[in-house]
Specification:
The structure is a homodimer. Helices cover about 65% and strands about 5% of the residues of chain A. Chain A contains seven helices and two strands. The structure holds a DNA duplex.
Chain lengths: ~180, ~180
DNA sequence: ACGGGCATGTAAGGGGTTACATGATTCT
DNA sequence: AGAATCATGTAACCCCTTACATGCCCGT
């Protein structure tokens, strides 16, 4: 499970429940990672069985008891080992969108242009999200937080998303232009 | 199975065996899709059970009989339906590399710089692959092939890979510079 | 009155990887 | 002599998604 690295990463900054973890993932890594609660809970159980995390139970009324998880020294070690593994490859990626574009021509020129234009719109909307919501989230966080995380890399990763999306937009504009010239 | 769309896409251009399919995927879509034979064979069986492909058996000696698969009209319909589904979203992505970079700071500045520099090297190597091997593959193919596929979108997708990789490189250079300035 | 937030989970199934199994031919 | 190519597949296991299950509290 590679989700376990995400969990260990967040727990290394402070104790959290599974529910809180989900919110942290949604807020800060949605650009490059996501997970459902139905995956987080079993994963926490698994990490606990391996001794990488422990939890305290906080009784509550009207809700299930809270289980506050914290990273153990063994967990910290595992996280560090993973972070230290050489980052000297570019793992193969998958993209259903690009796959579809690859086979799109068989629909004929007008349909192909419709699809490319739709995708262009989606990418533009995404660019706006990165420039507005995501940006504000980071600003809010950086002002209000404990100094253990600077938000430095977070802002840089937001910029990564912005740059890659801009590149996609320019590429799609170019493809549409080329396509219109054809035949 | 989204692999089934890849298979239907390739079979729409002409009949192939599972083994050939693997080579086609490796050659042309490795930029955004990949699959192992152990996944391709069951997937073909599944498509056959659904009536989307059929196969002819060609006896051989010393090797298992060849099974040459072809797309059926129902298969073509399924492919077209998929290609026509609105391309108006940007599906969430996952990247272990970005995830690692997000948590990298906890290793300390020198280690973080080592990791970022390694990743920069990997991205530069990838850029060269796109500019050389991939480019030559496409040129070879475009000259020697049946006119049903123009290789037009293939070359554009290669350019997409080149552009995105260039963006990654510039971003990493910027991050390393920022990181060196810090503290 | 109804939806959303809080808080935990289970179950079923899709999709994918790695390792294993067979066995002839051809290249280095 | 050993590796790669051709050609098919199975088995075990991991990762993830979707749907389901429970139940209180708070805001509109």
């Amino acid at each position: 499970m590679s989700l376990s690295h995400t969990i260990l990463g967040f727990l290394s900054l402070g104790p959290l429940t599974g529910y809180d973890l989900k919110k942290h993932i949604d807020n800060s890594t949605q650009l490059f990672w996501h997970a459902e609660l139905s995956q987080i809970y079993p994963s926490l159980k698994n990490l606990e069985a391996k001794g990488l995390v422990i939890f305290d139970t906080v009784p509550q009324e009207g809700k299930p008891d809270k289980k506050i998880y914290a990273i153990t020294p063994a967990g910290r070690q595992t996280l560090n080992d993973w972070l230290s593994e050489p980052l000297d490859e570019t793992p193969p990626t998958k993209s259903l969108v690009l796959l579809k574009i690859f086979f799109l021509e068989s629909l004929g020129k007008p349909q192909t242009l419709v699809q490319l234009t739709r995708q262009l719109g989606a990418q533009r909307a995404r660019l706006n999200r990165y420039r507005q919501e995501t940006r504000h989230q980071i600003e809010d966080y950086t002002q209000s937080s404990n100094p253990s995380q600077s938000g430095f890399l977070w802002e840089l990763l937001r910029q990564y998303g912005e740059l890659q999306t801009q590149t996609s937009i320019r590429w799609l504009e170019m493809v549409i232009q080329e396509m219109e010239k054809k035949i």
